[in-house]
Amino acid sequence: MSALPSRLLRPAPAAPLAGAIAEAIRATNHLRRGSSEPAVAGAWKEWFHFCVLAPEVAVLVNLSVFEDPRPAARGAEVGRALVLVHAGGWHGGAETFAAEALRLRAGALSFALGPHTVDFRDGRFRVMGVLARADVSFELDLTPLAFPTATRNAAFAHGSPVHWLAVPRLAATGTVTVGRRSHTFDGVPAYHDHNWGRFRWGGDFAWEWGVGLPDDPGSPWSLVFDRLTDRSRGRVLTQGLYLWRGAEPARILRERAVRFELSRQHLRARPFRIPAALAVLAEGEAADVPATLSLAGLAGDDRVEAEFAIESLAQVLVPNDADDLRLTTINETVARMHLRGRVDGEALDVPGRAFVELVRG
After folding, report:
1. Could you list the pLDDT tens digit for every one of the 361 residues in the chain?
2. Could you tell me the residue ranges of all domains in the chain?
3. For 25, phi and psi rounded to 5 degrees?
4. What CATH superfamily is the domain 7-360?
């Protein structure tokens, strides 16, 4: 899930831009590990999320650490690596790691879950890993091009406050290998967010989130949207549309300034599901995913419109924390984006690609 960027995090403007961005990330984007959060509702969850949108391949890497919610586990830490690669079709998988395979330290921005590592140094993220059973490996260098933004203490699904931090635009260079085929890219658009807090999978919530990045790496525009609802999706808890020009937000539109529309026509393609061990519990092959999603935001003379045509779907199946044998489905999709409108008198006409995520309990 994306950040709800209500606060720009940046140091004094005297440093050169790249150095100032790196300094802001080092100061804010470190592991929390639940040390200061009261355990009032739900197990601790924390994850680092990276998305790369290259012309021929889309990559999603999600590295998380969480407390095992089962009473017998007594809050033992567990790591999970989720990797999805879309290159013609979907590839990837999920692997879980016990506490002894985790190398974590609160306050650090370098950590490892088994063979998967994140390290921030010299002003960029180095993200590496391998899913042996899925025959997928990756080496990514991601250079932030925008200041991080954050929302803290957001109300979420009857749990403790949940916090988000996002870097909406990075330049990604690296290689992703699926089987014997490698995909190499240089300077393509990418996205990162970091989420932490306490909640229960299977709680009274659902969400839609997406990031849209331009086909042209030289374009300054980046878009993030989100909508958090109750589980039935009859009541909107919060929603927003966030547009960046270069390193800083150009427009942040919230609540009634934003209109969402999900098409009544649903995606009919058979979803790729992980982990394979849980796929047998999923009900049928239908997916509660619209074929298109559109949103619009208005503020004074500014107008932002974006349409997302969903192309392909992968489903991540997560057991509910209540241990009720039910699943929460995280629908990860790749989509075509078209961003239009006018901001500060400048016309927008930006084609691009997107990741769109829909969580359904």
Report:
1. 544 455 566 655 556 899 999 999 999 999 987 655 555 556 889 999 999 999 999 999 999 999 887 766 677 889 999 999 999 899 999 999 999 999 999 899 999 999 999 999 999 999 999 998 899 999 999 999 999 988 765 556 555 667 889 999 999 999 999 999 999 999 999 999 999 988 888 888 889 999 999 999 889 999 999 998 888 888 888 899 999 999 998 998 989 999 999 988 887 777 899 987 787 666 666 678 999 999 999 988 999 999 999 999 999 999 888 666 788 999 999 999 999 999 999 999 999 999 999 998 7
2. 7-360
3. -70, -45
4. AttH-like domain (2.40.370.10)
Instruction: Name the amino acid, one letter, at 275.
Output: P
